[in-house]
Hints:
CATH class of the domain at 34-132: Alpha Beta
Oligomer: single chain
Order of helices and strands: HHEHEHEHEH
CATH architecture of the domain at 34-132: 3-Layer(aba) Sandwich
Number of helices: 6
Shape: globular
Radius of gyration: 14 Å
Amino acid sequence: MNRTAASGLAVVLLLCGVPAAFADPVLSAPEAFAAAKEGKLLLIDIRTPQEWRETGVAPGAARVDYYRGPKALLESILQLVGGDRSRPIALICRTGNRTTQAQKLLMEQGFTQVYNVREGMAGSAAGPGWLRRGLLVENCTVC
């Protein structure tokens, strides 16, 4: 993204109540946690039910199993956002691989504010991850 486009995106995000720091489509786990807690975006965990049961999920995170396929992923997320493709969402998976693919798919389908928690739950080269950072998780009893 060039500097002019990035500046324009930052202005749009500010007008929508999303901090300018979110102009980058990648968020750290703490940034995603804080924004979700404040109601500024919807956090969506795209791991599998087994992964949700093993580690728990972020408080209030919606859950969509990435491996159900692209069509199911798109339909599920559209339902979660009430069809609003401009609603800010952040995707998290185990290490950021699935979220990178899902972010690309959603942006190709007209979503405009899709953020990637690239460090994931378990950590990756992008950062230590949700769990190692000691961020809150809830048990997933209906997974």
